């Protein structure tokens, strides 16, 4: 199989992650004005409700499939047998999820007002499963996934403006949301035949696959519960206003965090393949590149968002959400911890089959996070929620790093990693200076924000090149060679 560029894959996956996060920001201002408050309430509740069953249908299969399947990708017979078994398990879990969903609709009478909208959203269960996106991750086919995603997002936006015009059109909005999210997955299933033969099989090795899948699933459930607990506890102890303020801060943070993680997680199948084939030296080299790249990307993203938090809130949400500025500045520091934690987990613990440690770390962190919320929220409301999130993300980063210290420790102690961190800190000082000067000199919100981003990137890059940072010099050489090619 032709080896694909990690840099190109990182760019493509980062673009796809950004699109998935930005799509709701494009559509929400329109639908929030067109649809009634009740309609939006039905839409939001139905979407949230179905997401729990999407989690059950997924079962942790995708993470497990990428880890195990990466080592078979050069053998069509082996990957076909493996993919068919995983697909069969996934179809079975999807059937269970549908049975539980339909059962809940029949049992709980207070769900009657939501039945139609829930059934529309439930299409995600089936189409997510037949989409077999984990197969495309195994083969690092990010170009196909990104192009497909862009096309369906554009079609969805057009459909939104064509079909959603009145307060009662929330079902159309739900259908368009599903179409944007998983509508292309039928194409995935057809296109998957170019990689391998995938079908339902009787002789699935349940005993071999099920234990690690269930452990990964338990970790996913624990993460979902502790991530959701922030908003839930805030709503219980405070009010809807506090939840609304915090929600905007989280949405902005999630966009930036998703973009960075999207640039980095493309290395997961490559690392899984290398460790699966016992190529430890190559694995260590790629892992060091990932950690060093995160050092270069994570800190400036956090510093930049802290400096521009007020401007970003004004642009995205408006003046009525300005009270969330401090919450955004606090939770932004989670960018560094959460992305390091993701790398330690997805690139080290999962490929090394230490998913039981991931589960333990997640449960411990979740309990700490819930406890901190009950302490901080009465004191500082939504700012306290943000602080508890930062502490929790630091905890899970530390625990995941400790669990993989035999691989991560030597990299963090290396001279190259230390230099990357120092270079990044010095570069961030340039970002702070640029943002402060522009705040003093430019009154226009849009112009100030745009110039702050552009000039901060230029300043940061220039400082890294001046400090002879290896990663920055490598990217500069690639850009120069690409321009020479034209």
Report on this structure:
The chain is mainly alpha-helical and 486 residues long. It has 22 helices and no strands. It has helices at residues 6-34, 37-58, 61-69, 76-107, 115-121, 123-131, 133-138, 142-163, 170-182, 185-191, 206-237, 240-264, 267-276, 280-307, 309-316, 325-331, 334-349, 355-403, 405-412, 415-441, 445-466, 470-485. Helix 2 crosses helix 5, helix 6 packs parallel to helix 10 (185-191) and helix 14 (280-307) packs across helix 19.
Feature tags:
single chain, 486 residues, mainly alpha, 22 helices
Topology of this structure?
Layout (H helix, E strand, L loop, with lengths): L5 H29 L2 H22 L2 H9 L6 H32 L7 H7 L1 H9 L1 H6 L3 H22 L6 H13 L2 H7 L14 H32 L2 H25 L2 H10 L3 H28 L1 H8 L8 H7 L2 H16 L5 H49 L1 H8 L2 H27 L3 H22 L3 H16 L1
Helix pairs in contact: 1-8, 1-12, 2-4, 2-5, 2-6, 2-9, 3-13, 4-6, 5-9, 6-10, 8-9, 11-12, 11-18, 12-16, 12-17, 12-18, 13-14, 14-17, 14-19, 14-20, 16-18, 17-18, 18-19, 20-21
Question: Structural class from helices and strands?
Answer: mainly alpha
Mean pLDDT: 84
What is the ordering of alpha helices and beta strands? Answer: HHHHHHHHHHHHHHHHHHHHHH
**Main β sheet profile:** none
Radius of gyration, taken over Cα atoms and rounded to an integer in Å: 23 Å
Which range best describes the helical content: under 10%, 10-25%, 25-40%, 40-55%, 55-70% or over 70%?
over 70%
Calculate the terminal CA-CA distance, rounded to whole Å: 28 Å
Number of E-state strands: 0
User: Which regions have little confidence, pLDDT < 50, spanning 5+ residues?
Assistant: none
Number of helices: 22
Q: Which band does the percent of strand residues land in?
A: under 5%
Molecular shape: globular
